[in-house]
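Retro notes (design track)

What went well: tokenization of the new backbones is finally stable.
What didn't: we kept losing track of which sequence belonged to which structure.
Fix going forward: every design gets posted as structure first, then sequence, in one message. First example under the new rule, 155 residues:
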């Protein structure tokens, strides 16, 4: 279990950690050890010097207020839109322009090559755009038929 006595935001919106010994650490940053395969497990709280201050085995073990605070902070730090639907693909060779619907709205990106689609688990995919932004497909098998058909041409 972690050695967190309290976790809160300061007036500037930065995280402040008080550890089990009562020492205060300003401007701590949460970092996921396994952001894609186990996003709720293995969270490190890192100080401004880059050294780990506290380790959290599972977010679910924390009190609700601390859990919510860390999830909010992680969501603001990590931008990985989730693909809900593939709307169009310009061509079935690469590079190609993709139009997708994500949890953050509809967007377009360029897929440079098939190698930019990584399998990261049972049906999970991570797609890298030409600008370096990553898009997550949590379960390619649960996509609608049209999306699956477009995607299969690249896998």
């Amino acid at each position: 279990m972690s050695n967190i006595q309290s976790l809160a935001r300061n007036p500037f919106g930065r995280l402040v950690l008080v550890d089990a010994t009562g020492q205060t650490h300003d401007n701590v940053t949460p970092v996921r050890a396994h952001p894609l395969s186990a996003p709720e497990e293995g969270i490190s709280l890192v100080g401004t010097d880059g050294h780990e201050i506290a380790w959290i085995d599972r977010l679910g073990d924390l009190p609700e207020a601390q859990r919510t605070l860390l999830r909010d902070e992680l969501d603001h730090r990590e931008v990985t839109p989730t693909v809900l639907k593939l709307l169009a693909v310009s061509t079935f060779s690469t590079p190609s322009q993709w139009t997708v619907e994500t949890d953050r709205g509809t967007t377009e990106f360029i897929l440079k090559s098939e190698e930019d689609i990584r399998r990261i688990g049972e049906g999970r995919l991570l797609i890298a755009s030409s600008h370096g932004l990553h898009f997550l497909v949590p379960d390619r098998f649960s996509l609608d038929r049209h999306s699956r058909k477009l995607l299969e041409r690249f896998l």
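Added context from the reviewer: The mean pLDDT is 91.
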